[in-house]
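Hi there,

I know you've been waiting on this one. I reran it after we fixed the sequence typo, so this is the corrected version. Both the input and the resulting structure follow.
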Amino acid sequence: MLRNEFTFGLNRIYLLFPEMGFPTTYLVTVNWLVLEQCADEILATPAIKFLPWTFRKHLNPDHLDNTVFVQCNRQVRAFTPDVRHPLWTGATVTYVAMQLAFHMGFQKVILVGVDHSFTTQGKPHAEIVSQGDDPNHFSPAYFGKGFKWQLPDLETSEIAYHLAGQAFEADGREIVDATIGGKLTIFPKVDYSSLF
């Protein structure tokens, strides 16, 4: 049902492209561990890619079709409506995508698949190596055995989501959550099937 919509995919969403039958319009990845381990896969996707400016030196300049670099900032806690300026990552790539959507002029952002829950627990941002299948994402291979990743910081993500909601609302726009069974409570919930 999303085939003809503008869609933002995040990190390793491309693992779902064969099942979906189409790629997302955009692919946003700002996490260094994901980029270091999956750069070739990410660059091979047909989606327009948004990657951190600081990662450009690690990529072959001959293989950067449909790639846009953004500056990321992990210190300044703010919502950036103009992505020509550094973006706070808000501890989640979803927040970066929200800022991109705002900059592009989208009036309504509909979240799909934002579970906002992890069975793997520990100190936020701690780097771990998966010991088996990934229980936290749509595919067991997402952060599968041997994959290095950082534990989530859901508290900081919620701060970022509040900032995004306020920015959209102040500009007469909205963010709603159509995730089926998701744990995020920041945005108004809508029934996914009612959107089509």
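Quick highlight: The chain is about 25% helix and 15% strand.

Best,
R. S.
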